[in-house]
Design a protein that fits this description.
By secondary structure, the chain is mostly beta strands. Helix content is 7%, strand content 39%. The strands form six sheets. A five-stranded antiparallel β-sheet has the order 1-5-4-3-26, with no helix packed on it.
Length: 358
């Protein structure tokens, strides 16, 4: 029981009604808590914190380590919870693959419930906007024009559109389908949790869109007509996540450790920065304890450090690769989550971002 949370006793028939209604309905009953005083959670610890070397602020992330209580959490630098949102009971099964969350300029929260929809809530948990669609997963971005960019890579098929742009009224105004360019060998034969398993899309300042078809092991940039302008990171990425173009023109992305028997040429780092002019890795980070863990979220901070999320750890790393802040689950829970591949996939954090102080 969290501070400020009150017990409620429901009539015996309410859980049965929720079960009958199923898990595909709209977002109802979610609980948000803003704490006047930060609340500690015994499951979360900060075991590395160098105050003078970090970019101060709060950290927002999705937390699915407790399958009975998936949530969106905002913590301070000490790991204390300052705000959280509990996913409604009828939708708590919609957190994989890709329970994306981001802060909007109006201080609302935009998040994806995979195979269900995209939601914008205010800090009280009220639904401000939603787009219900069972073909969304992994990522949603609010664009400067007010539209929302969403991806579908959960178990996408060749016939599907992997990226959609939705206007505020819920109308699809732009799509990108991988089949228009990649329905050819060797791509059309690929299948691993879907065809492309697209996990990210970002609208670039030039109006093009950066897209991550994970199963192809590279990122694509497409123009407004959907034509592929270029591929990025080919031969350097493996099952990449959260790619972005940095102000210096380099590509920053999370990656995974490739099976060496199949992909001998790809270096195994959790996060990489690639100079696109030379096709060389110019910065890299690998988890000290688990080189296989990879990264689902990689954000370059304003102080030059990088926020990296992988599994059940979130770290801030200096350009020299030193961890100066680390949030993790306490050891016994961490071991339990990492004990099997299935547990790791379904009970991890997903995406994290640092929020500057107001």
């Amino acid at each position: 029981m969290f501070a400020n949370e009150k017990k409620s006793f429901l009539p015996f028939w309410v859980p049965l009604l929720i079960l009958i209604l199923g898990s595909c309905g709209p977002l109802v009953g979610g609980k948000a808590f803003t704490y006047r005083e930060p609340v500690t959670d015994p499951d979360i610890i900060i075991d590395i914190y160098v105050p003078e070397r970090v970019w101060q602020g709060t950290t927002l992330f999705s937390d699915n380590h407790n399958l009975q209580k998936p949530r969106i959490v905002e913590v301070n630098m000490r790991g204390e919870i300052v705000w959280q949102y509990l996913i409604p009971e009828n939708l708590k099964g919609h957190t994989n693959p890709g329970f994306d969350v981001e802060l909007l300029p109006n201080n609302n929260i935009l998040f994806v419930l995979p195979r269900n929809g995209v939601y914008e809530i205010d800090r009280k948990g009220n639904v401000i906007w939603s787009y219900l669609d069972d073909k969304v997963s992994h990522d949603a971005d609010r664009l400067p024009n007010g539209n929302t960019l969403v991806v579908w890579g959960g178990v996408d098929q060749i016939s599907d559109a992997q990226v959609k742009e939705i206007n505020p009224k819920g109308k699809i105004v732009w799509t990108w389908s991988a089949k228009d360019y990649f329905y050819k060998s060797p791509y059309k034969e690929i299948h691993d949790e879907g065809w492309t398993h697209t996990n990210a899309a970002t609208r670039l300042p030039n109006g093009n869109t950066l897209i991550s078809p994970r199963n192809f092991n590279f990122v694509v940039e497409v123009d407004s007509k959907g034509s592929v302008v270029r591929t990025l990171g080919q031969g350097l990425l493996f099952k990449q996540h959260d790619p972005s173009i940095l102000p210096n023109g380099n590509l920053l992305a999370g990656s995974h450790r490739p099976p060496s028997a199949f992909v001998l040429s790809i270096e195994s780092y959790a996060a990489v920065e690639i100079d696109l002019r030379t096709a060389k890795i110019v910065w890299k980070f690998e988890w000290p304890e688990w080189p296989w863990l990879g990264a689902r979220s990689v954000k370059r901070l304003k102080n030059g450090n990088t926020l990296v999320q992988g599994g059940v750890r979130i770290v801030e790393v200096t350009p020299a690769g030193e961890i100066v802040w680390q949030l993790r689950l306490r050891e016994e829970i961490e071991k339990e989550v990492l004990s099997t591949k299935r547990s790791y996939q379904f009970r991890s954090f997903y995406k994290a971002e640092r929020i500057a102080p107001h």
